[in-house]
Structure formats: C-alpha cells, structure tokens
Write a structure and sequence with these properties.
Elements lengths: L15 H9 L10 E2 L2 E2 L9 H19 L4
Antiparallel strand pairs: 1-2
C-alpha cells in the first residue's frame, strides 16, 4: 500500500541525511514520490489516497523547513 521501499527503513522515522542528499541534488527521494499501481502520480493529487496525501504534505513541510534553515 504505501510502504517505504528503502531497505532497513523504519516507519515514522525520517532519514534526514539521505533526504538532504537527494534534495541538494535537485531531486526528490523516490520513496516520497506518490505512486499508484506502479505509476508516478505525484503531479496528479486527485489520484492520491488520504495516506499518500498526508505523507506528501509532511514531506513538503520538511522541504520548506530545510530551505528556511539554509540546508538546501
């Protein structure tokens, strides 16, 4: 359903260092892209589940925090 595909990932815990590596490279971590039936639908919010929406909002809030702190 919306599980985190990274090996060794722990639900509810964000790997800030890895996330920042992607963001500094001007990319988004692939596990934060919204997928439906294996297709990236990040640009189609109308297709997101409530879980995906909540997770995406949390990610976008972290990105804003990183920017405000000058981390990216």
């Amino acid at each position: 359903m919306g599980g985190d595909p990274r090996p060794g990932s722990v639900p509810g815990r964000v790997d800030v260092e890895t996330e920042l590596i992607y963001l500094r490279a001007r990319s988004e971590p692939p596990w934060e892209r919204v997928k439906r039936d294996g297709v990236d639908v990040t640009d189609r919010p109308d297709l997101w589940t409530p879980y995906q929406r909540a997770r995406r909002v949390e990610f976008e809030e972290r990105v804003e925090f990183y920017r405000a702190e000058g981390l990216i």
